[in-house]
Automatic annotation (TrEMBL):
Residues annotated as transmembrane: 31-59
Any one Gene Ontology BP term: defense response to other organism
UniProt keywords, alphabetically: Membrane, Transmembrane, Transmembrane helix
Segments forming domain Late embryogenesis abundant protein LEA-2 subgroup: 93-195
Name this polypeptide is given: Late embryogenesis abundant protein LEA-2 subgroup domain-containing protein
Cellular-component GO terms for this entry: plasma membrane; plasmodesma
Species assigned in the record: Aquilegia coerulea (Rocky mountain columbine)
Amino acid sequence: MSQTQDVPINDAYYGPSVPPQKPQRKRSRGCCVLSTFLKVIISIIVILGIAALIFWLVVRPTEVKFYVVGAELKEFNLTNGNTLINYDLSMNITVRNPNKRVGLYYDQLDAIASYKGERFGWANMPRFYQGHKNTTDLRADFSGQQLVLLNTFEINQFNQDKNDRYFYIDVKLYSRIRFKIGALKTRRVKPDIECHLRIPLVANGSFSMFETTRCDVDFWSAV
């Protein structure tokens, strides 16, 4: 039998190269701190999400509704070379809170009327608190004279609306509202409330019925 001879260490070796061993990296303390911090943040987000879901299930908040239920336009004329508008407009507004557990504080409620993007009238309405499942009736009166800048096309549209005895007027409500849930009162929000109206012109004893119009309300843009 043949015996295996050991190859001297200092002799040449022609086998495959042996890769050097990489030193093991120690896990840094900063990495552990960052991982713990991320876990805490994720836990807080999950807890807040669950709390928000429970709150929604208990309170079931529903959007407040604004309606213009009546509008009377007694005067709407252009004078002074179509640069001044004379106006006399009255509106009845209904605000409906359908919520069973949410009340609302209206700390500010102003109405601004515009025609073709030109503001011509402003009205202030009183502050009030609106309780659960409550309907509140408001009134806004606009009268006076205002400088407007209408181009030729818009003036022609004005004359056409006057002949049709209907004017397309936009009214935007600027408000500051707080919600009351039990003893908790939220911070003020400023929702977007816009009413796009088709209002009949009342003149010389003629009268046309105004159709109740629901306003567009966006609370989320104010959050």
